[in-house]
Specification:
The protein is an alpha+beta fold and 283 residues long. It has two domains: 100 residues, Beta Barrel (Thrombin, subunit H); 115 residues, Trypsin-like serine proteases (Thrombin, subunit H). Helix content is 14%, strand content 28%. It has a seven-stranded antiparallel beta sheet. GO terms for molecular function: serine-type endopeptidase activity.
Amino acid sequence: MKVQTYLSLILFMCINLSQSSIPKSGEYLTKINSNSKIVGGAISKLGKWPWQGLLVYTPTNQFFCGCSLISERYVLTAAHCTAGLTQFYVIFGVFDQKNLDAGSQSYSLLWKIEHSGYVPKTFENDIALLKTRKPILYTVTIKAIALPSQGINVPTGTVCWITGWGKTSESATSSPSVLHEAQVPVISQSQCRSWYSPSTIYDVQFCAGYEMGSVDTCQGDSGGPLVCATSSSTYVLQGITSFGNGCARPEKPGVYTRVSEFVDWIFANTDIVGKSNLLNYVI
């Protein structure tokens, strides 16, 4: 990676840490804590969340963000994870980062697209689409997650799941390297805006968490999934971990990119085969 890229990453991190909105992508590529977990979560198990993946920086093989598999060739993550980066790849089928299972698979990328409307300062349109060079092999521990229908929002109060290897607290420096999970309810836009500010939370974002805090995504979880179950117990990718004011603070829930606002964008930026695959997972 070029020196200019390192400087831009450091500058971006410093700018955001000086503000209330903190990206949940860890310490980027210089002080990545790969042995960490979701705040207030519990240990998951291999294969429970088969769409959960990792973004890994190629020169150092360091994990820096999460991602979600949405078809055999396409992956979704947060734009703030990938902006400015070219040397990274994805891994799926992982439970313990320190002990990659035989079933884990690594894939290089053909291309990436960050949303043209992505705004780093506000995290508006914080979504990126990745295409792997080769089709991803589905197994018992690697499967795609369903997408919501365009414009159909998850109802307020729905209890959803967050997963990742993010920090256990704002000040954490180390913790188990295994995947963790937690449940959080979706919060109304009006309530979330009252806790942050009306101008902070956009319609393409939503909040999930608890008034008293205690459970949340944190640095290291960025780009990872927030999934909600339908009445038929099918999980749907409703959110992408984006940012928050600290981690698990009272009245400062995690903020997620609203995937249902970007389904048409996903179709518009995938080829015919990709669209055919994606349609199999839209409900």
